[in-house]
What does this fold into?
Amino acid sequence: MNSGTLLHASRLGLTLIGAIGASLAFFATPAKADLRICNETGNPVSVALGYRADRGWMSEGWWQAPPGDCRVLYQGTLERRFYYIFAADDVGGGAWDGTVFMCTRDETFTIFGVEDCLARGYERTGFFEIDTQNRTDWTLQLTENADGPAVVGPDASEDLEDPTFLVDPDDVTIDAPLDDSSTSEGTDTQ
It folds into this structure.
């Protein structure tokens, strides 16, 4: 009888330890709320990100995304509605670009300001706009099709404000980044 009680107590102790360990693992894992980009092409891709930070417009890069892999560009809950992306195919030479110009350079960079890129010793690069529709996380897929590079946003089966998730960067018509309070319809912030 004594060995049965000891066996029962040890099983109960192991069960409690397992339950505590599982709950600690569950609560210690933060929710994923990031801006991610996934490379669905056959070549490595270099990516730059632009957005309005507390100190003003900021661009930063480069993230390298191997074929079939994803990279987090902005970690944490997305605080802005609009983000801007430039991506280049490192082998094929194509690019996912647009007409929203920000500063970049060949090496790893964090650059504040979007004005006078060339005069400040940077390159002037066209980014395309991502409208996150005020979601806390967003994943983009860089793809290629017969017409060239394409960008696919989150789950296309979701019913959002604008259900068009296949973005042709050549269709981007704004000339400067938007503030989060403005919309992209005909707004020019320069």
